[in-house]
């Protein structure tokens, strides 16, 4: 196997490596990761997700009313995933007592009377996936001849107490990393958990689904890492989701801005907040496949060799369009402020907005299986007190990401030409020159992406 990353960097420069759920799904997958870590002496901090599927099962336990038997069945599924890894270890007794402790916590929380009503308990149970996978992976590294320890991220990743979507406290994280993680790193490779943190009181919190990338980026920032690798199940970031079109191809490079737009507008390989710490500290980010590390991947950096008009097409599913309408809007400058105040008070984030004289339409994310706030009856009835409200579902948001998209003649017309046969419900130029978005019917979105890809990337 070649050394795709180690060869390019001074070994004294710190690298933070993050492995996603499929990369640590089982013992075999973990072995690939161990090789990647041990191949690069600069990697002293490893951040792991929960083994694939485990967080979804934990979300079920935290959010769904179930009978005792149903709960036990879900708990058993989780245990089985972990036990399969445990039994493949050369020295299972090194981690078995700790794993059993985590199993006990899992059972206790799963059957806790209050679990469905207490956000703090939900986060406590959600944290177990990462706590189990990091325990196992540290041992896999040891088994491969590394010197590794399991580090509890909650000692450094301090957040506020917005359970389910906790906000990291950057300065505190930096101070804690200096004090606790730096010295530990000097002794052994530290294998820690993505996605989880703790508030000032020590209550376990989580950063929102897919948050492990964000954790690793925050640690890379706090530790002044030179590089940050995201190891996943695809060989980098693609021109579009390869599941939509087989013509999608991997990108060698992306700028911070492009990557941030792609993450925001649905590229699953990147968590939307991930780029923020990397940009703040100018940390180069690598995305590659832990199954095929020698295939290379995508480098995300401040400056790119090329800045093409069209870099990629992303799609975000499960969009809801909310239209608010009032004849009063004509006269009331405070109306929009009121509308957005209500939306913000429910923690909903709006992506696209279009206005006419008496109506405003906006799109809101409504993903299933999310711990994020969703548009609900309460929000709607508050809005209905000040205006007419119409809610339409079944949309996807398709975004073209690139450079100088608004300024140069012909750049957007080529996009519109590619879409002339499709029904576009909303069109929105981004607030920056890196994107143009379209709201389309979910049933048509595959075709919209394919048509755009064909015209922009395959000719
Ligand atoms: N395990 C968490 C999730 O599935 C976090 C992550 O994988 O990034 O959402
Ligand atoms: Mg993930």
From TrEMBL:
NCBIfam families: asp_kinases, PRK09084.1
Name recorded for this polypeptide: Aspartokinase
Recorded family membership: Belongs to the aspartokinase family.
Pathway: Amino-acid biosynthesis; L-threonine biosynthesis; L-threonine from L-aspartate: step 1/5; Amino-acid biosynthesis; L-methionine biosynthesis via de novo pathway; L-homoserine from L-aspartate: step 1/3; Amino-acid biosynthesis; L-lysine biosynthesis via DAP pathway; (S)-tetrahydrodipicolinate from L-aspartate: step 1/4
Recorded coiled-coil stretches: none
EC number: 2.7.2.4
MF terms (GO), sorted A to Z: aspartate kinase activity
Gene: lysC
Gene3D superfamilies, alphabetized: 3.30.70.260, Acetylglutamate kinase-like, Aspartokinase, catalytic domain
Aspartate/glutamate/uridylate kinase domain ranges (all copies): 15-288
Entries under InterPro entries matching the protein: AceGlu_kinase-like_sf, ACT-like_dom_sf, ACT_Aspartokinase, Asp/Glu/Uridylate_kinase, Asp_kin_monofn, Asp_kinase, AsparK_Bifunc_asparK/hSer_DH, Aspartate_kinase_CS
């Amino acid at each position: 196997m070649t050394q795709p990353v180690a060869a390019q960097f001074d070994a004294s420069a710190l690298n933070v490596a993050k492995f996603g759920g499929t990369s640590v799904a089982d013992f075999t997958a973990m072995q690939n990761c161990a090789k990647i870590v041990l191949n690069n002496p600069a990697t002293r901090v490893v951040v792991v997700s929960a083994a694939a599927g485990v967080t979804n099962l934990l979300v079920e336990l935290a959010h769904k009313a179930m009978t005792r038997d149903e709960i036990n069945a879900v708990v058993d599924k989780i245990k089985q995933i972990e036990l399969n890894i445990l039994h493949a270890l050369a020295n299972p007794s090194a981690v078995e007592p700790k794993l059993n402790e985590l199993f006990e916590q899992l059972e206790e929380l799963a059957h806790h009377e209050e679990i469905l009503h207490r956000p703090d308990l939900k986060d406590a149970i959600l944290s177990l996936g990462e706590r189990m996978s990091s325990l196992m992976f540290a041992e896999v590294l040891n088994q491969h001849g590394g010197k590794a320890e399991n580090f509890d991220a909650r000692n450094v990743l301090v957040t506020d107490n917005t359970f389910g979507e906790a906000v990291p406290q950057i300065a505190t994280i930096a101070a804690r990393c200096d004090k606790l993680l730096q010295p530990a790193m000097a002794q052994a490779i530290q294998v820690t958990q993505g996605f989880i943190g703790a508030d000032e009181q020590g209550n376990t919190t989580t950063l929102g689904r897919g948050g492990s990338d964000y954790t690793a980026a925050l640690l890379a920032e706090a530790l002044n890492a030179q590089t940050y690798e995201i190891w996943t199940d695809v060989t980098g970031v693609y021109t579009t989701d390869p599941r939509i079109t087989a013509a999608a191809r991997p990108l060698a490079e992306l700028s911070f801005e492009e990557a941030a737009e792609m993450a925001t507008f649905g590229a699953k390989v990147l968590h939307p907040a991930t780029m923020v710490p990397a940009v703040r500290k100018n940390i180069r980010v690598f995305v590659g496949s832990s199954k095929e590390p020698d295939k290379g991947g995508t480098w995300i950096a401040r400056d790119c060799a090329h800045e093409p008009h069209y870099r990629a097409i992303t799609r975000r599913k499960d969009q809801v369009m909310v239209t608010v309408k009032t004849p009063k809007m004509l006269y009331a400058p405070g109306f929009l402020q009121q509308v957005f105040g209500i939306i913000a008070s429910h923690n909903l984030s709006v992506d696209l907005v279009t206005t006419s004289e008496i109506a405003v339409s906006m799109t809101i994310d409504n993903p299933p299986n999310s711990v994020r706030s969703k548009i609900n009856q309460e929000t709607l009835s508050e809005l209905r007190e000040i205006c007419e409200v119409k809610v339409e579902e079944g949309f996807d948001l398709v975004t073209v990401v690139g450079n100088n998209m608004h300024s140069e003649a012909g750049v957007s017309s080529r996009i519109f030409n590619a879409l002339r046969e499709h029904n576009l419900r909303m069109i929105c130029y981004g607030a920056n020159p890196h994107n143009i978005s379209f709201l389309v019917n979910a049933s048509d979105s595959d075709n919209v992406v394919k048509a755009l890809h064909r015209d922009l990337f395959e000719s």
